[in-house]
Design a protein that fits this description.
Order of helices and strands of chain B: EHEHEHEHEHHEHEEHEEHHEE
Oligomer: heterodimer
Shape of chain B: elongated
Strand content of chain A: 15-25%
Number of strands of chain A: 5
Structural class of chain A: alpha/beta
Distance between the termini of chain B: 20 Å
Radius of gyration of chain A: 14 Å
Number of strands of chain B: 12
Largest sheet of chain B: 5 strands, parallel
Amino acid sequence: MDSNNLHFIIVDDSKLDCFIAEKVIQNSGKDLNVKSFLLATDSLEFIKTVPTRNDDFKIFLLVDIQMPLMNGFEFLEQFETLHADIQSRYVVYILSSSINENDINKARRHPSVIEFLNKPITFSSIAGLIENL
Amino acid sequence: MKPEKIKVLYIDDEVNNLNSFKAAFRFDYNIFIAENTNIAFDLLKQHPEISIIISDQRMPDKTGVEFLEEVRSIYPAPVRMLLTGYADIEAVIGAINRGNIFRYIQKPWNEADVKSAIDEGYKFYITNSMLENKNIELQKAYNELDKFAYSVTHDLRGPILSAIGVINVAKNVEDITEMKSIMEMIEKAMHKLNDFIENTHDYYNLKRGELKITDINFQDIINDIKDIYEINCRVNAINFITKVEQVETFRSDEMSIRIILNNLVSNAFKFQKKAGTDKMVDLHINVNRGSAVISIKDNGIGIPENDLNYIFDMFYRATTEEYGSGFGLYNVKDALMKINGKIEVQSTPNEGTTFKMIVPSK
């Protein structure tokens, strides 16, 4: 997929949840492109290779918390060490099934995280994200 | 079995006292003697199971109170007693009040007093160490409970939320084929939920259940497992080879054995290479001279070396391939511990994994 035209990245170890997010985003009626990663490490590698651009085009990054190998928080820590030019291209949300307050607060404390979203993702939550941009 | 003698350390700068003490009590107790504090510390280091320390008060390098205070900071477990005459009573009261000594024995001592002091002290020592062990166990149980509660909410909610999400998606789907694939996804999520609940049940049984030792017929257990995997074998073209060599009686807890075999076989089936040909799972059980050697081998995706040390940890998952609760191997380890079994794992990524176990007959 052409990264110039990418609107959403999903990082979630559950194939089903990736599928749901893809469907919800694609069916939002706004002609949005989405790419999902089952492994947080793969998504980081991808993000590093996306060429920087000068305009203010943004990509939404929806990250799950509980994932094997690299969890959402470990991902955020790595992400936040990336060059500011790269980081500024992404609008980061945590998308999780967790109802644990520690998780929610920890996610919100991350400077790169806009908000903590609860699963499952819906048409209205996608519309809300785009409106907030 | 004869109970082991209580180990008592006695320190006194007068060698005559040491010798008469040892002569008087060596039949009842295991007596260690030291004529200065350096020797005493050496003995404590070499014999951590010393449970009673009796010290003379008046010694040239330091007083008994000073010595016992120092001992307390390094070896808090043994019960400390002071041996002294009336002249030192002030020091004794101070030491008792500061909690440095359990009791003092008056000098010159008589046998009955010393014996009762040692026996009382030992009771105190045992109670304390039992309490300590209980506390450690309790702390461990709490930590596990925290981890458990956290993961349970995640693992129970995950599939439910997935199902809700995919049902939302389905509302806009007209195509019947797509609808069918969505139904399959919901089915998968529900299976995952069910697996998790079954694993939780196993977990609870292992933690709280008593062992029920009966005669184990491995062929019967294997037949049950083969029935469960018959369809899986056919659909996914997996060759399930089983071999049981059992001529002698084997006694163990059948539920533990089943939990172990079910989990390991389930993993062997689950972590096959998607596009693999000649997929196989090989289960071999050999009962010989009072122990069962069980090996479960697959030629699946294998486990990366870095993860091998963690696979038996609760909720550890080494892969996003397939679903897993991170519960299975933890339960295997727990079950094996209950029946005194040992497990080894060998794995090469992309070539496969072999689990080998030895379980003694009870």
